[in-house]
Amino acid sequence: MSFPVSGHPAAATGRHDTVHVEEHGSLTQVTFRLAEGATLLSVGGRPTLHSALGEKLYALDPVTAFLARKLGTGASFAGLAGALVADGLSLDQAGRYVRRLLRQWSALGIAAAYLPKARLGARRPQALRIASLDAVLHFASAGVEARVLRAFAHLASGAPAASPRLSIEAFETNGLALVRCNGGGAAIVSRYEVAPLIKGLLTEHVLSLAPPDIAVHAACLSRGDRALLLTGSPGAGKTTLAVALSLAGFALASDDITLLDPAGRALGVAFAPAVKSGSWPLLSRLRPDLPEESVHLRSDGVRVRYLPPLAPIQAAGLEIGWIVNLRRTPGVGAGLEPLDPAGTLACLVGEAHSAAGAASLETLRMLIGVAEQARGFDLVYSDLDDGVRTLAAACA
After folding, report:
1. pLDDT score at 122
2. How many Cβ atoms are within 10 Å of 93's Cβ, its own excluded?
3. Which of 14, 96, 135, 384 is the most buried (most CB within 10 A)?
4. Which residues, other chains included, contact 142 with Cβ-Cβ below 8 Å and sequence gap of 6+?
């Protein structure tokens, strides 16, 4: 049991609370409510929220219990903040507290924003094509569009599909950003979180369409007519190394997710590389344009910049020539340690995802075939340039 927000609202502060307020016409019609699957309960006389997301209970203090009851019947932002002003807070304190609570509860699956069904004066739609997914983005706020669209511009596909599988609308009002997927309840975030949220929605739908393909958490590059897959634990440097390799004669296909078709060919899911803040100084010398890109905030609190590809991303499925597991080790020179097919298969299976929930026998045989045909290595390295030189020589 945990407490989503406790203490007096006057104490509520947050790094991203003081965002520019951009009112957009009919967005004043936004209603904030408890999300589907969220229920207000009483446990031993204490107000408690249950969220179907993760099947968790959250105990509430008197202030959050009061606001939860208002969300139970639906309330505007002004109504929520005004109730706290009536209790003695300044308008600024009340606004900051309500923004923080709504964002936090939205992430926990407790609160959502509900907008009129009609699109709210959206600017021109942006059609996207990624893997087999057709999607369209609608922006009702110029500020959100300017921050977000650049991260996905390389996926633009011209005119929107007649019936896109995924329609995402992004709005901004009262210092909050609202992101609605296929007309449902809108997630409530800060403007810094919109692009990562949209990327997450796109990823979720790409993976749902993956059968009979298998998704692998791996960067994908190509050299000649063969693919190089980079696997490894979080923090191993897949994105950083993939970007550096793309400037050293490799063609980038993906920095994060790769699809394997039934024949074992690799196709990268072509998002712009998400460069974490720890890699900004390192990659800025290779891509001087990196510091000019907007900073975005992922749901795990990590700051990233999306780096637009310099060349068209490899779009065709390729036979896999190399599978390299990254083992970043401070203070060591770069070196490749060969893996046998069983070790290579372990790298693939450990990173694989099937939309069907479990790998079939046919899928397992495909992965075994990939592991047997590809050259597998552990790359032990510390210095980025050494890692690039070592892989470039191995894949020559």
Report:
1. 56
2. 19
3. 135
4. 22, 123
Structure token pair of residue 84: 């706290």
As beta bridge partners, residue 275 has 305
For residue 133, the tally of other CB atoms under 10 A from its CB is: 21
Three-state SS for the chain is: CECCCCCCHHHCCCCCCCCCCCCCHHHHHCEEEECCCEEEEEECCEEEEEECCCCEEEECCHHHHHHHHHHHHCECHHHHHHHHHCCCCCHHHHHHHHHHHHHHHHHCCCEEEECCCCCCCCCCCEEEEECCEEEEEEECCHHHHHHHHHHCHHHECCCCCCCCCEEEEEEEECCEEEEEECCCCEEEECHHHHHHHHHHHHHHHHHHCCCCCEEEECEEEEECCEEEEEECCCCCCHHHHHHHHHCCCCEEEECCEEEECCCCCEEECCCCCEEEHHHHHHHHCCCCCHHHCCCEECCCCCEEEECCCCCCCCCCCEEEEEEEEEEECCCCCCEEEEECHHHHHHHHHHCEECCCCCCCHHHHHHHHHHHHHCEEEEEEECCHHHHHHHHHHHCC
* pLDDT tens figures, 217-274: 999 999 989 999 999 988 889 999 999 999 999 999 999 999 999 999 999 999 999 9
> Which two tokens mark 85?
């002003």
Query: What are the pLDDT digits (tens) for 113-141?
Result: 998 765 555 567 899 999 989 999 998 88
Tokens of 95: 């606004």
Q: Report the first-to-last Cα separation within the chain, whole angstroms.
A: 55
Of the options 3.90.800.10, 3.40.350.10, 3.90.228.20, 3.50.50.60, the CATH number for the domain spanning 214-273+309-394: 3.90.228.20
**Rounded distance, CA 246 to CA 3, Å?**
45
* Residues 137 and 100 sit within 8 Å (Cβ to Cβ): no
**Residues 361, 238: Cα–Cα separation, whole Å:** 29
Strand partners for 242:
none
Query: Burial letters for 234-253: b for 16+ Cβ neighbours within 10 Å, e otherwise?
Result: eebbbbbbbbbbbeeebbbb
Q: Is residue 17 within 8 Å of residue 99, measured between CB atoms?
A: yes
User: What are the structural domain ranges in the chain?
Assistant: 9-19+30-109, 126-208, 214-273+309-394
Q: Give the pTM.
A: 0.89
